[in-house]
User: What shape does this take?
Amino acid sequence: MDTQPAANPTEGSDLGAEIDRLAVMLRSFSPAGSEIESLDRITAFEELKGALAAAQAREAVNFASKRMSRDLRNRVPVRKRGLRVGDEIGFAKKVSPASGRTFLRTAKALTTALPDTFSALSRGVISEDKARVVVDETEGLPDRDRTRVDTRISESLPSAGMRSLRSEARALAIELSGNDADERVKKATAGRRVT
Assistant: This one.
């Protein structure tokens, strides 16, 4: 599949209309004439799914940001700003509100703390499932540590199986969270005084 981006696809056209045209084409295409062509199409579809998943994640984060800005302008109390954003995303995705909230958390992690994983997903190098594994296994880490795991695991992403990717991400997350715990203990100990 050609992964070179075309000129800005929204220039002179409506992105929604372009997506509709692609959907119509995909619903009506004839199956490939050869086994090799079938496998090439399967690869191309998988790469497209990754690009779509990354675009959807980026759009979800954009929507959440715009909603937060609107709530701020409208002086919505802090605790209520963006309160139902994930629910609305779930509605837009045609899934439950809880699934929408989970998707938004995953999207935020990918777009802010896991740039290598997000890039691999958007290029179709990895599946959405692999991206989710990295997000899940780094949950609870500060963003800087998530980014460190992301950098260290980036070369393994394309070739690792799901189980080995999960194990590697988990081990790196534990290593980094352990280092942080050691640093916190050292700082706390250094600040102690006996009087």
Observations:
- Residues 42-190 form one domain.
- The two ends are 70 Å apart (CA to CA).
- Residues 56 and 153 are 23 Å apart (CA to CA).
